[in-house]
Design goal:
Blueprint lengths: L1 E2 L10 H11 L14 H10 L10 H17 L2 E6 L6 E5 L8 E2 L11 E2 H14 L7 E5 L5 E7 L2 H9 L10 H11 L7 E6 L6 H5 L7 E5 L9 E9 L8 E9 L5 E4 L1 E5 L5 E5 L2 E4 L4 E9 L4 E5 L11 E4 L8 E5 L4 H9 L3 E5 L8 H5 L3 E5 L2 H5 L2 H9 L2 E4 L9 E2 L6 E3 L18 E2 L9 E7 L2 E9 L2 E6 L13 H13 L8 E4 L3 E3 L8 E9 L11 E4 L6 E3 L5 E8 L5 E10 L2 H5 L15 E4 L2 H4 L9 E5 L1 H21 L4
Helix pairs in contact: 1-3, 3-15, 4-5, 8-12
Amino acid sequence: MQFLSIASAWFAAALPAIAAMYLLKRTYENRIISSHLLWQRVLREQEANRPWQKLRSRWLLLLQLLIAIILILTLMEPVATRSAAPSGHAILLIDRSASMASTLSTTDQNSSPESMTRLEIAIKESLHWLDQQAESRPVTVITTGAQPEVLVNRQSNKDEITRTLQSIVPFYGKSDQAAALSLADSLLQDDPSGEIVIYTDGHWSDASEANKLQLRSPTVLHAVGGSESIQNVSIAYFGIKPAASSSGAGRGVITLRNDGEQDQSLKLEVYAVTAAGEQILTAEPLIIVPAGEWESAEVSELPQALYYKAQFKQRDDFLADNTAYQFPAVPRQRQALLVTEGNLFLEKALLLAGVQTVKISPDSPAPADEQANKIDWIVTDGLYGTLAADPDWSKLLESKPLWMIDHPEQSDQNAAVPASHRVVKKEHTVTSYLTFADTHIGRLSKPAPSEITWGESVLSYGGIPAIYAGTHEGMPRLRFTFDFQDTDLPLRPEFPVLIVQAAEWMSGGLQLELGSSTAEQQLELSFHSDTVKAEWETVQHAAIGASAGQKKSAELEIDAQDLYQAPSVPGLYRLIEKNRDNAIVSDRLLAVSADQTELMNLAASEEKLRLVSGPAVGVTDAAEKAGPDQPPIQKQQVSLQLYAAILMLLVLGAEWEVYRRGLSS
């Protein structure tokens, strides 16, 4: 408490005057006398009475002195100082950059064994801050990211704000925190009573830019984690180089970076993961990485695999960069089983299409076991009816994508000679970029509708279906109703294009894997022609390199745009494309990592967020964050005169009661 008018203390001189009045006051005793002659004795006593006497305890005297003291204190204008409780618009800025996903060690015995991330602590503290605000106070929540995002705007419902805060997840891409801070300041441009409340660890890659901002709004900076540094070791690079020989897929190069303050000895594990999901441990090199340094390791003779994974299990403060994924330098060549009595044009065209063909005679038994597993799809060159009659062949044909090529004979009643050269085609992968102009086809078979329940005609010649395409039990299937050797198509430039596009359809719209990207990076994606729905499916999380367990999917909105956003959490993802029948027509893998610029900023940077250029209200860690030129936390003065007046009235009431009862002494 303090006083605004100290000069009013001179009124305290009235206190001795009140006491003197009682010192000089004569007092008499009431007695019953029998004669007036006794007055002579009273007169003698009055003449001998002294003006000063001992001050005795009197209720009226004490109450009057108390009233005078209260009156003097009231004139001195007493006030109480307390922290300001603003009720204006509040901007709650939550930093969700990569450094906020790092964990903080705790020495609290009552805490759980699992350490909390900085973001979890920030959300917990922001919820505590929210509970202390007035019910009617409007709050806007902004999060950092590639672009600042306003989650709620001028919301007073604390339940909705709480749900919003609890839904915030880390952002592992490159963050623009300065833009988020500038946006928060601009939202308070017309609200002088508002303030910005920031929860961050101060590890901003653009801290120098943010510190130069001339903020107009009061700012409160909550430092999450204080001055504790982040101890982190990361896989900065993982690459696959092609092998000199054909015995393996190549060799891997892994680079580790130590941003901590201590040397680290890491046991690196490199896995080759097959299409069946089998993880083969190929190498376990031991790498010593000095503090603040980079070290590389090379793994040779990697086997053929769908993708490769490098990881180390030693825990540090940031787990999302302890695992990295990479794909073969050269994708595995698709293998097709060609059942034919001899078709040189088809064999050469498949070879040009990048398909490894295994030629087999129709008299041979059906491949089984390991040999059958290596086959990606089957081509039957005019022999489907004969093979389907054999149980082993029939079972194999039903289990693989199938491309049937008919050989219609002149004696075949289900065959016909086209009446014209008119070509009608539908948009399809197999028929793209083809016209069949001036192409001669001698004869086409006419299968019964019951034989083509799995697809539809995508090209007709002279009014007769020439190519059927579709799926059978989720697997691509083709049927050409003409014999290549009964046409002049192999002599035309369109023939290799037709075979390449047919091979692509049979391979499930095979395209190269999507490769690597950073979190939420914009990707240029091209989809299969039959794709109507696409979604990201989580294969593995990079936090610990473990399987995602129950796989989660996030659907993409396919439209005319070419740019799509990569998943937001580091890990391995599969882009699954489906057609109108909900059958998978293509799937490709994408490795997502945290942005290296943000990861390098996890170490103690030379410049951290200070905001000394703006009118800061306060900083939770003033010794570290504020500096000597930081203004103190705003205080609010509350006048106590009203309370003093109420107390004086109560004392006056007590004085009246004393006077009424005659308790003057």
